[in-house]
Amino acid sequence: AYRFINHQISPAVQKQMIEITGLSPSNIETIGLLNQDEIQSLHLHEIDYFNRMILWDIMPRKHLYEEVLDEIRKDFEIRAAASAQ
User: Fold this and answer.
1) Is the dihedral of CA 33, 34, 39, 41 positive or negative?
2) How confident is the model at residue 19 (pLDDT cuts 50, 70, 90)?
3) Which helix (H) or strand (E) holds 13?
4) What pLDDT, on the 0 to 100 scale, is given for residue 60?
5) CA-CA-CA-CA torsion for 53, 54, 55, 59, nearest 10 degrees?
6) What are the pLDDT digits (tens) for 35-55?
7) Does residue 83 sit in helix, strand or coil?
8) Domain definitions of the chain by residue range
9) Is the CB of residue 37 less than 8 Å from the CB of residue 19?
């Protein structure tokens, strides 16, 4: 698992992911593989850019998500208890 994760976050793979998705890399070392246009379009030259980002929008129906999550957790607990017997 660690080898896969390390592969995925390697600068070379992150560069490929940028080309596919247009999203910022998760590894800052990738910046060495990017040209100036890519760096600017991804805002990697702006130190405070990521502080201004909203990474998790407010969920307007969060209560529905929590209800489903609670049901899943309860079902998991029931199954775990049943298999322990």
Assistant:
1) negative
2) very high
3) helix 11-21
4) 82
5) -170
6) 999 999 999 999 888 888 776
7) helix
8) 2-84
9) no
**Under a CB-based contact definition with an 8 Å cutoff, are residues 16 and 29 in contact?**
no
List of residues 6+ apart from 79 with CB closer than 8 A: none
Q: Does the CA dihedral 20-24-25-26 come out positive or negative?
A: negative
**Spatial contact of 56 and 62, defined as CB atoms under 8 Å apart:** no
Distance, in Å, from the CA atom of 65 to the CA atom of 3, rounded to the nearest integer, reads 33
If we measure between CA atoms, which residue out of 35, 27, 34 comes closest to residue 11? 27
Cα of 13 vs its chain's centroid, Å: 15
pLDDT the model gives residue 17: 96
The structure tokens listed for 84 are: 């322990």
Burial class (CB in 10 A: 0-12, 13-18, 19+), 25: buried
